[in-house]
């Protein structure tokens, strides 16, 4: 089975892919063949049953409103590390309802009872698999799969643990079987009659002022025409008095927020979906607090005073205003110079 050969197959190129020995973990690029092997594992996992997820997410009560299949906002990376160092695989997953998350190594599910791996899930959708001290057995392909009632999605990352000489090549029979299966998968994909969404235009991180109109514009291609869904901090945005979703004749989709408030600050994600798949982008929106303007006002006024000649005197008042007022002092209607040493 491919899952049994994942560790060996991922190093098919042997010495040609060996890297300089290091004492920490670093990201690296896999070969096209290694990438196809990981895609093959994902292809199988998305179509086979899995054991129950370890996390606390439940799908017994599906929320009302529009549901969204899982989307990978941040994918796993590939690493190589010296034996004994820690390694963390991290991704970010969004969806409605929140997807259940499953982790696999070489196609075999990593269960909760396996204390060698620590699974971490944060409120913003970030999911991590942490290995405190890598061993030679940790070398291989790691896959995360997210599922909710709307569908499944997965991505993989590869880990090379450097602890000795490069392993041997695949036997010709093993290599032939793997390549044949890859060609079969590619043949299925080329028969697809639809085109998955692709964002031709998307905004980056933005800063807008409180009380003003804010518009997020994007343009997306796909066949059939994709449907768009906006989320803020992982929560769906529905049209209301302050939020509107518009589509112009030139194909530009817009999320309009008017007026903008401090509560609108956060991470915005736009998900485009059709029969062929999904695509998404995210941005950070910062809201600049509205400057409240108030004319100058004397909160405490000057008081009449009687002072013996030769004694010091301090005349005080308290002034409020926004922006902070500029203060001028006068005596008998003549401005007192700031350079006057006695005053």
TrEMBL record:
Pfam families: I-set. Residues 70-154, 197-288, 296-343 form the Ig-like domain. SUPFAM superfamilies: Immunoglobulin (SSF48726). SMART domains: IG, IGc2. InterPro entries: Ig-like_dom (IPR007110), Ig-like_dom_sf (IPR036179), Ig-like_fold (IPR013783), Ig_I-set (IPR013098), Ig_sub (IPR003599), Ig_sub2 (IPR003598). Gene3D superfamilies: Immunoglobulins. This is Ig-like domain-containing protein.
